Task: structure prediction
Amino acid sequence: MGTAPRLPDDHSAVADPVRAPKHAVQHTEHDRTEIVEGVVTPVSRTWACESAAGAVRGQLTPCLDALGLVAGSGDLDLPGSENRFVPDLAVVPADLAAKTEGALLPDRTLLVVEVTSPSNGETDRTVKRRRYGQYGAPLYLLVDRQHRACTLFSGPTRLGYAVEDGPHPFGTPVRLPEPFDLDLDTSGL
Result:
């Protein structure tokens, strides 16, 4: 006879309708699962999306080391909402990343990058843009592969972002402000 499954130490996570899906995602074997407006979705990026995210990361790499930052695609939790995102790329302080086992909050990032695909484009353009701003991510770079353009959002507010720089057609440099102080080459995206 098998043993009964062990309940988590925090039993309230199972009973709370907002926290239950987040708890389930944290304990799933699929390592890239996100919750967007309450819908649990396994994330599977295409090679084209990986390539675009890699091109952005490659351009950021020289300043990451100099500034004590790291870039990755760890989970971002949006407390009090039914959202837990897995961005294509997020830049965070290296010391914070080294000591964080779970998800970070968007306001702990310096830059969040999402690369659209046909299946997630509208989510990246609308839901994530609004939510990242509401939760204080200072910069959100949308690499829109379907519209072949990049837009940088900044000035987070409780309604989303106050400043929209773009869309810039691929091939037009996009200025990433301090602390990056970098003109991002978008020609290879």
